[in-house]
């Protein structure tokens, strides 16, 4: 079996690119086998305002895991989790991690604790204590946004020093690598991302400015987590290099997406469909990103 084999548990859409649709192709392009479990299957992402589809329940997740286990297929190098909509489903993921680690004690668990943004939760509030008390102690890498980091630590981030303190609080709960994929601490032109690796006395901290683009995209957090998983693996844990390649790839994808949306919209404001990520068209950028951002060590 491939040395790099990912079990990715997150949402799925028939049309567009969020969740597993956003994560699977980039991981495959970068040489990872990907087995996907879809926590939901919707016609399109919920930002459209109307969607139809199904939600996988915890018993169905159990059945899939049992099938994999019975056929000796739980041999994964990585577990990647994203959007989960119910507390019972998330609790089953907590129970699944030790089963996979029993097969591969070196499993790397990458968790994007998808709970909300801009001060608003869009999952049931009961997921928060499960993420905080049960998932974080199991995770190796977490990629929350600023709001999610505040929820997980019960703190408020008002400045960069607050953010570093929050990262330390998250490390204390278990994960060795924490990256705030986006914060409100940048400028009018840039978002600020912060990343930290801590193992015993060893600590690495970096920050990077991310140029803002004049559009709202969906699926970028899912793409970010998948790319970061890949590049942390391919660089042998080089935090600076992995962050630079991840964000540079995102910039290339988003610039291409925006340029395409502007053509499709004919000068009018782009629709949700126009702003679906141009992932397939960005294959070469995913494979060999042109590094356009520089991470700065703290």
How would you summarize this macromolecular structure in one to three sentences?
The chain is built from nine helices and twelve strands. The chain is of the alpha/beta class and 298 residues long.
Task: Write structural notes for this entry.
40% of the residues lie in helices and 22% in strands. It is α/β, with parallel strands linked by helices. The chain has one domain (5-297): UDP-N-acetylmuramoyl-L-alanine:D-glutamate ligase, CATH 3.40.1190. It has a 10-stranded mixed beta sheet with strand order 3-2-1-4-5-8-9-10-11-12, with helices on both faces. The model has no long low-confidence stretch (mean pLDDT 95).
- Along the chain, the helix and strand elements come as EHEEHEHEEEHEHHEEEHHHE
What is the CATH level 1 assignment?
Alpha Beta
Helix content: 25-40%
How many helix segments?
9
Mean pLDDT figure: 95
Shape: globular
Distance between the termini: 39 Å
Looking at CATH, which topology would you report? UDP-N-acetylmuramoyl-L-alanine:D-glutamate ligase
Q: How many structural domains does the protein architecture include?
A: 1
Return the structural class. alpha/beta
> CATH homologous superfamily?
Ribokinase
Estimate what percentage of residues fall within beta strands. 15-25%
The profile of the biggest β sheet is: 10 strands, mixed
For the record, the CATH architecture stands as 3-Layer(aba) Sandwich
């Amino acid at each position: 079996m491939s040395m790099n084999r990912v079990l990715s548990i997150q949402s799925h859409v028939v049309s567009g690119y969020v969740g597993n649709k956003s994560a699977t192709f980039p991981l495959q392009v970068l040489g990872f086998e990907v087995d996907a479990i879809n926590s939901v299957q919707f016609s399109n992402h919920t930002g459209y305002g109307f969607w139809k589809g199904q939600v996988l329940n915890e018993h169905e997740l159990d059945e899939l895991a049992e099938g994999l286990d019975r056929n000796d297929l739980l041999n994964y190098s990585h577990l990647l989790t994203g959007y989960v909509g119910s507390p019972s489903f998330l609790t089953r993921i907590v129970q699944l991690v030790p089963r996979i680690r029993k097969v591969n004690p070196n499993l790397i668990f990458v968790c994007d604790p998808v709970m909300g943004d801009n001060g608003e939760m869009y999952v049931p509030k009961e997921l928060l204590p499960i993420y905080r008390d049960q998932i974080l102690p199991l995770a190796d890498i977490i990629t929350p946004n600023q709001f999610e980091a505040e929820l997980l630590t019960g703190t408020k981030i008002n400045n960069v020093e607050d953010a570093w303190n929050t990262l330390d609080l998250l490390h204390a709960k278990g994960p060795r690598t924490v990256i705030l994929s986006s914060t409100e601490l940048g400028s009018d032109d840039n978002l600020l991302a912060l990343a930290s690796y801590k193992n015993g006395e060893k600590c690495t901290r970096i920050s990077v400015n991310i140029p803002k683009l004049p559009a709202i995209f969906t699926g970028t957090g899912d793409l970010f987590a998948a790319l970061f998983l890949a590049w942390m693996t391919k660089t042998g844990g080089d935090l600076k290099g992995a962050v630079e390649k991840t964000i540079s790839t995102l910039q290339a994808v988003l610039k291409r997406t925006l340029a395409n949306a502007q053509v499709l919209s004919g000068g009018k404001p782009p629709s949700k469909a126009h702003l679906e990520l141009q992932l397939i068209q960005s294959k070469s950028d995913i494979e060999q990103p042109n590094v356009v951002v520089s991470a700065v060590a703290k």
